Amino acid sequence: MAAAARYKTTDAVDFVIVGSGAAGGVLAKELSSNGFRVVVLEQGPRLEPGDFEHDEYSVYNLNALTNNWREQPNTFRKSENENAQTKPTVWYGRLVGGGSVHFTSNYWRFHEIDFLERSRKGPVPGAGLEDWPIAYADLEPYYTKAEWELGVSGLAGASPFDPPRSKPYPLPPLPIKSSGVLMERGAKKLGWHAFPAPMAILSQNYRGRHACMHCGFCEAFGCEWGAKSSTLATMIPIAEQSGRCEVRANSYVSQIETNAAGRATGVVYFDKQKRERRQRAKAVVLCANGAETPHLLLMSRSKQFPNGLANSSGLVGKYLMFDWAAAMSAGVFEHPLNDFKSVHVSRVIHDFYEIDSKHGLFGGGGLDGRFDLYPVGFALSGFAPAMPQWGREFKKNLRDFPRMMYVLSHNAALAVETNTITLDPEVKDAWGLPAIRVTYRDHPETTKTVQFMQDREMELLDAAGALKTWRLPFDNRDTSAHLMGTCRMGKDPKISVINTDHRSHDVPNLFICDGSSFVTSGRNQPTATIQALAFRAADRITTLATKNEI
Amino acid sequence: MNDNSRRAFVSGLLTGAGAAVAWSALPHFAAAHEHAAAQVKTGERKFACFTSEEAIQMEAICEQIIPSDDEPGAREAGAIYFIDYALSQTEPYLQPLFRDGLKQLAEASAPQTFSALKAKQQFVVLKKLESTEFFRKAREYTINGFLGDPKRKGNRQEVGWKYIGFENPGMFSPPFGYYDAELLSGKKQRE
User: Fold this and answer.
1) Cα separations in angstroms, A536 against A147, A502, A530
2) String of b and e for A492-502 (b: at least 16 CB within 10 Å)?
3) Angstroms from B172 CA to nearest CA on chain A
4) Does residue A86 belong to the interface with chain B, where contact is any CB pair within 8 Å?
């Protein structure tokens, strides 16, 4: 086994990758395994499984694994006419492994419709709905590759709505939970189809990694067993063992530099001591997530690129899509579910993945049965606003904890051109860089779809035999963790930022691959698609580099 | 349960009962409150951020948010110790918010102190402050002190977790709950 590489900042390595998350981790492993010299720059620290604890205060209040808004403030407004106010808005994994460390591990492939919804169902007035320039069939081999390389548990063919696949899952589904049994019960009554949730969590030991021990702390937490298939547990170690990859933690990139020929020469970043450094590279691969990627491109403006790098289309930062297109409903049952145990989701329903056109709605979504609220979070936000939020009745209701489940719908969010990431003109972060300013309001058609899906959640809970149900509001969200669409892929440089090789239209040796590449949001479970894109991008980039075409 | 903790628990029950029967304050309520205040004075309680008086007022808020009744509440969980820990150790920038909030509370309770009010009156005062940032944080931090990881000084002896039926041993094995156990036993019978 080779030791992890160490490069000088003056070495022009083959690739500098910005971000080590769902996409960056995959690209680091693939490109270094393919013989290239790679430096990965990660904003956050390097943590190990032993550092991960079951402490809600640490992950939610102290931001142990995520961006800390006290150091990196966001500003938010609903439309361009408003003054943006400082408010936590984008939430992302900020450590080696990025969001793949703290995600819930739902691992849904996109379906065929997600790539060509515009031509099948569109256009939608006021929405920037476009087809992807690639189809599901182009990505299928890479979904399969991601599932096998990372370790995903599931049951092929269990959902009648699944798109075609070339290979089954490498691991059987995780054990069914009480919420899953109730999902099945409700679905059966309604004529719907509940199927085992595809999860990027190991149901059995796999490639030297430990199976899930069902501790119950997945969403927002890191896995102390390494059973969650984060890039930290899977791709990063392989990249380092290649002897050609250096992962440099605590490195916050502030600018991509270019030369007179308009080519990228490397990046400027702050190290842990906030000293400015420069890493030279022959090519830059940007995998910083759907908010930080456009943030960095816009910060990289120069005389040559006055509107920001890779932005001749003016679309960098536009068509932002969030996971606010989701709704949740609660049900209390007669007997204890104890759903705080094990992974959060064991059954999913895709009967409304494409809502029947008779409803006059666009898009669709999926339903999952889950309990992803931990004790504190449950007490803080598990009850409807009209229910008591403190006092005697509140305390009494807390005792419903073991007898509860939630149904969550994940739905298509329409891209809208005025939903954007821009640089805040006034607010700066602790490094003196302009804060991320978010302008966001869901398209009215998205809101209608979410409402429809929440009605289905309530229907399902009733059919499953819930004694008491309530809806949680979805119209006043705080943060979003699914950050998509801000550097969309397309063939025409006038209406997209990257081409189908993930190469930016404007800068030939700048590649971009993460949630920002998305043209549509799918049904708002982005990680499998981010990683399939990353495996595909690695193939494309390797081919181009081998032919000396970068 | 040793003598000290039993005493603390029983004293908690009494004040808790006062809070629980909010609309008809028990005659013993004032006595119980005095007992709690005496505990503070005798130095049994030590705080890094709060003064003794602030701690009494803050804890009275905690008790309204998660009252003690026949089951432990925020007081028995030591929620106040979590809040004191957070304000002194991990999030000192929150101190002004809590200090100013306690001043608001004192003004809203005048001429009495908040802790000396009957439970029903305390409820009315807090209702008025319900939409303030201070109350929002007080609620959030009381809940953390009742249900958070005990290593953060609250949720003593995991009383909050026991109350809601949560366990945190670090691993489980199926079946996890009633309905999946029922499904599994049905499958076994069929086999």
Assistant:
1) 13, 9, 10
2) ebeebbbbbbb
3) 5
4) no
Strand ranges (DSSP E) for A259-319? 264-270, 276-286
Q: Which residues of B touch A337 (CB under 8 A)?
A: 176-179
pLDDT digit string, tens, across residues A522-534: 999 999 999 999 9
Residues A471-508 have pLDDT tens digits of: 999 987 889 999 999 999 999 999 999 999 999 999 99
Question: What distance in Å separates the CA atoms of residue A34 and residue A238, rounded to the nearest whole number?
Answer: 12
Cβ contacts (< 8 Å) between B170 and chain A: which residues?
54, 213, 215, 224
Q: Is A53 on the interface with B (CB under 8 A)?
A: yes
With beta carbons under 8 A apart, name residues in chain B contacting A70. Answer: 93
Instruction: Read off the pTM.
Output: 0.93
The residues, any chain, with a CB within 8 Å of residue B17's CB and separated by 6 or more, are B26, B28, B29, B32, B68, B69
Among all chains, which residue has been given the structure tokens 């972060």?
A429
Min Cα distance B187 → chain A (Å) is: 13
CB atoms within 10 A of CB A92: 25
What is the mean predicted confidence (pLDDT) over A48-70?
A: 97
Instruction: Give me the average pLDDT of each 10-residue run along chain B (191 residues).
Output: 37 35 37 49 78 97 98 98 98 98 97 97 97 98 98 98 97 98 85 64
Closest chain A C-alpha to B114 CA, distance in angstroms: 16
Residue A308, Ramachandran bin (φ over 0: left; ψ between -120 and 50: alpha; else beta): left
**pLDDT tens by residue, A99-157:** 999 999 999 999 999 999 999 998 999 999 999 999 999 999 999 999 999 999 999 99
Shortest Cα distance, chain A CAs vs residue B39, angstroms: 25
The DSSP string of A452-472 is: HHHHHHHHHHHHTT-SEEEEE
Residue listed under structure tokens 């940007």: A286
Interatomic CA distance for residues A233 and A226, integer angstroms: 6
A53–B177 C-beta distance less than 8 A? no
Residues 197-216 of A with CB under 8 A from B: 213-216
**Gap between the Cα atoms of A109 and A136, Å rounded:** 9
| pLDDT tens string B113-168 | 999 999 999 999 999 999 999 999 999 999 999 999 999 999 999 999 999 999 99
> Which DSSP helix (H) or strand (E) runs through A544?
helix A527-546
Burial readout B114-147 (b: 16 or more C-beta within 10 A, e: otherwise): bbbbbbeebbebbeebeebebbebbbbbbbbbbb
Measured between CB atoms, which of A175, A340, A399 is closest to B174? A175
The secondary structure element, H or E, covering residue B137 is: helix B133-147
Q: How many CB atoms lie within 10 A of CB A244?
A: 23
Bridge partners of A366, per DSSP, are A410
